[in-house]
What does this fold into?
Amino acid sequence: MTRNGQRLLLLIDDEPAQRRLVAALAARRGWRAIFASDGETGVAMLGTQDGMQLDAILLDHWTPDADAAAVIAALRERRPALPILMLTANGSVAQAVAAMRSGATDFLVKPLAPERLLAALEQAVAGTAAGELRPLTEKIPALLAFDEIVGSAPDFRAALAIAAKAARARVPVLIEGESGVGKEVVAEAVHAASPRSKKPMVTVNCGAIPANLVESELFGHEKGAFTGAFDRKIGRFQQAEGGTIFLDEIGEMPLDAQVKLLRTLQTGEVHPLGARHAQEVDVRVIAATNKRLLDEVEAGRFREDLYYRLNVVPVTIPPLRERAGDIPALARHLLARIAKQPGLRPLGITDDALQMLGEYDWPGNVRQLQNALFRAAVLCEGAALTRADFPQIASLGARRHATTQAAMAGGVTLFRADGNMRPLEDIEADVIRLAIGHYRGRMTEVARRLGIGRSTLYRKLGELGIDAA
It folds into this structure.
């Protein structure tokens, strides 16, 4: 870390425009970037004063002077503990395997989404396995039908049943759930089960598009519509004609673009920027968000009328920690898909390893589980994955077990100073206080998250002597 408290990133990339973009994005979280235009220069910089202070390295796969795996190996030899992230433009899994075996920590895929880069950098310096990345593992192909999606937990199957029923209609579907739970997989299953399955499904990550370009991206523009509009552009809605448009991270859409989206949903027409007339489109809309969109409405960040237009069929995907019983079957399923990739092979997994995976709480959900399995499969030399093939998960799990002897996350103490458990009533009171603080006194939300009725919550407040304020 530099003297002024900034973290230092070495970016090895020969594209000036991309270097400027990455530097600007990283600066949002207090990072300062230094640059090398090729791998040889980057390796040499490790011996400079700035190089001695590095917190992470981001390497473009297409660095011109050598293959990425060789550069990574050289970097890793000089800095064994330094996080090294590789940036790839939809690169092949075979290249990813080679780079990872050379010592890469993780991957980011172009086009570079701002939140993915920032999450990757934060995860890298925290020493965890990038649960928020969108790495090469997500490029593993296969559209799954509903009956091929793995999971038997009641809440999960209930959500899939709602989505499957909605697939046959044209109505919008709103999928809510934490990052990594599989919202895009469910959206793809809805499209595949719909009468529109032969038509295109167009995916738009609303959080990855600059605010000033959202309208042009979604609805298109005419030549000369604004400065820099040198050609006519067909918008994503028109590209999805007859099929489905999937608006991921819809909660990140700017308010002015929300107005135009609402009008499109109401009229079935798009109006490209600079066009004289609107154009009819026949498109089914599926939206997804890792936020609770109603909270965004209450905060004034999302239009209420658009929310109700999108929320015709609400589908909430539970986090992986709430369906831990699905992890063994899910892990085996993911391993089977990973094994089909170039450079990899079929692997088993031991019961001991599955038990450890089941005990971990997976903040990055299914995406993080897939990433962990992909890493383990790349580096495994045996016939089956064991607990030893998941060192980061084992380390994090051990830390959690140690801390629960004193407290739960958020400061709920389970044990007294003499080593005995505290009374359940005292623990319950602390949990309720924690929930009230976490949800900023919104008692309906507190009751919902605790799985009790609002009247029951107020009764408990009285019985436990808790001041709701």
Notes: Residues 365-379 form the longest helix (15 residues). Confidence is low (pLDDT under 50) at residues 128-137, 402-410. Residues 167 and 193 are 6 Å apart (CA to CA). The radius of gyration is 24 Å.
